[in-house]
Specification:
7 strands, mainly beta, OB fold (Dihydrolipoamide Acetyltransferase, E2P)
Length: 97
């Protein structure tokens, strides 16, 4: 799949992207009451750019310039923009620079 083909509420998304930039993380309160972290990264492939939601430990793994692969991800609309995330059931791999 390509970034330009992703639509809100899609499931089982598989993408390979290059990370262009990663925003500063923000904190949130998880369902279990503990504090977590989330941030947004901007990434692209040859079809265009897309936003990626990075959660907790994934934030420290992904840097600007990395090539990543998301397997079994999902898309949602957040602040009128499509965001892709690996979520609980998906996988985010850092393939290298």
């Amino acid at each position: 799949m390509k970034a330009a083909e992703v639509r809100p509420d899609m499931r089982r998304i598989e993408l390979e992207l290059k990370v262009l930039e990663v925003e500063e993380p923000r904190t949130y309160i998880r369902r279990d009451g503990k504090e977590g972290r989330v941030t947004t990264a901007l990434a692209e492939d040859e079809s265009g750019k897309i936003k990626i939601s990075l959660w907790d430990t994934d934030i420290d793994r992904v840097k600007s310039g990395d090539h990543i692969k998301i397997t079994n991800g999902y898309a949602r609309l957040f602040r009128n923009e499509v965001h892709v995330s690996a979520g609980i059931y998906g996988k985010l791999e850092v393939l290298g620079k």
